[in-house]
Amino acid sequence: MYSVSALDVPLALRLPKKTVKACESAGVHTVGELLSVPPRRYDHWGRLTPMSSLREGEDVTILAEVASAHLVANRSGSGVRLEARLTDGTQFLSATFFARNHYKLAPIERLLTPGRSFLFAGKVGAYRGKLQLTHPSFEGVDGDDVERVASRPIPIYSAMGSLASWAIARAIAMVLDHVEDSDVPDAVPSAVRARNGVLAHADALRRLHQPETDDDYRQARRSLAFAEAFVLQVGLVAARAGVRAVPAPASPASPALVESLTALLPFELTDSQREAVARIGVDLASTVPMQRLLQGDVGSGKTVVALIALLQVVAAGHQGVFVAPTEVLAEQHAASLRSLLAPLGERAPDVRLLTGSTPPAARREIVAALASAHPLIVVGTHALFQDGVRVPGLGLVVVDEQHRFGVEQRAALSGAREDGRAVHELVMTATPIPRTIAMTVFGGLDDTRMVGKPKDRSPVATYLADATNGAWVRRAWQRAAEEIAQGRRVYVVCPRIDPSDEVADAEDEDAPPLASVAEVARYLRSQPALAGVAIHELTGRTPAGVKAQIMEDFSCGRAPLLVATTVVEVGVDVPEATLMVILDSQQFGLAQLHQLRGRVGRSSVPSLCIAMHRHELTEAGRARLEAFAQTNDGFELAEADLRLRKEGDVVGAGQSGTATHLRYLSVLRDEALIRAARKEAEALLNEDPTLGGHPELRRLLRAGSDGRLEWMQRS
Ligand code: ADP
Ligand code: MG
Asked: Cα(138) to centroid of ligand 1, in Å?
């Protein structure tokens, strides 16, 4: 039986027209949508202050009766105000509410009728020598126990169009009055709620909006957070199960080939690499589609792990695709795969490069090769999936640096086989992800973590340097010259391309301008210490063809100093690079800084990272830089980053309006809740794989996106 949920009722059936209009302008159309507007915070009525002892500047709560209330036009001619005279029987005090026009004040006037008693809370001000309250919060207490009312938390909402907090509270109260708890569906089954101390949805909503005690709204928030986590996890687990139900081509392990490759590599695999290779090898040999997240710190050697996986697939007669987020990276990956494979000679599979810059003829040829199911490896960017490229022989997709990669591309990839079969999928992250994030965002993926680095690496020493300290700055450039004189490479990273380039988070105007690639390159070229050193510039505006040449010049040492934006941030691999100078490093996020640092320290030669920053730092900026200098461990930094960020920065805003939009769940605080929800989700789907017995859950999941949230937005 299908019953209409009390939450689906249009607000127009419950609220005055004007209120409905204001709600609708804020995208809130139904009872459920209004009830899911969370209070921003809760205020408290204070201890009652007798009217006789009010003092200017104090925050007070008073109990008073309305003696009179009048609308008055402001003398200036603009706007009106409502003047209410309040009394405790002996003293009088006025409360004033201002507005542009009397319509706005009419609802307050209707409530503040003479003879009724209210609690008023606000700051005592003075006007023309008389004490008054301006825009106090108020709550009727007629017939109610004053103590009880006074102990209630006051929910404070962010204004919604023309609706102020108190008006939202009234609208919610009107709506709640009509809600039958039994008509409010629960996404979380009652057994699950009972096990996890979670309130029924209706109860949670009431306690959220009309709490009697602080505990009420805390429980409500926790319950709503659990519900969010639960829906999200059911979605992730179900999606995973759906994928597993479709077979992928199996690629039996080919130990001989892998052995001969590893024997020919210029290095020994680390233990972590071996373990990852073994796990992935087992996955690929099966027809159950692999969905694995490979996490490893910058420079931990994920590429070679991916290569061995690709080799296994190609050796079994399938095709492998390796997707990179940028052309520079795709080119690098193609080059390094080819050089790692070179010792195999005849037995090395074809590695082809397909990006947006691939000339049409070459592109046609690669597309045809893919369509022919001839076993090969194609490395590429998004261009790989344009115009429905067909890859019937696809056995494995490796996605590098996932968080730059959209949901659509991944969907396009899954569609690339066209024959209804699945593919194995290996997702590699650019930087380690905190566990809670991995669970909420990549919850459908198996997680493999590679710890440690190849043993011949010396750690990168990190120094913070105040850019106003001339001695430090001179020393840094001196050091750059020394490194280059010894045949090494130096990166200099700036937040801007040229002086006119606006940076996203605009600085205050008094601050000195941020370093730009154009200016810094010009400055460095004029430095006697660097005379004769070829200096290239690399930014997002550099044409693709030129980019490749610049990277080549840098890599081989023809132009050993590269001034760049964060285009060098991800994955670029030049082992001879030993110095990374980051200018205006306060501009970058912790993950970015760590990525940048990861461009050096790629050989046994000791490397250095100098993070220059401006003299004035925000508290958050300083904390970030200090955390950065304190540890080289990406997993640790990921956790630190999460602690230093605000929730809103972590979980992207792009998901608002979908069922997976997180309003209450905090990936900062709610790890335990997320874990519990995960367990329950798995148990539920085991019992009821199609969710036939859980219509509300099904409805929410259908309404939602595929459950992925952008976990980190880069600044
Ligand atoms: P990331 O995990 O950041 O993608 P890469 O795969 O780019 O790291 O590897 C960084 C560098 O380390 C490459 O030059 C790669 O050839 C090299 N490398 C990978 N594994 C090892 C190892 N076990 N020993 C030494 N060098 C290695
Ligand atoms: Mg990499």
From this structure: 65
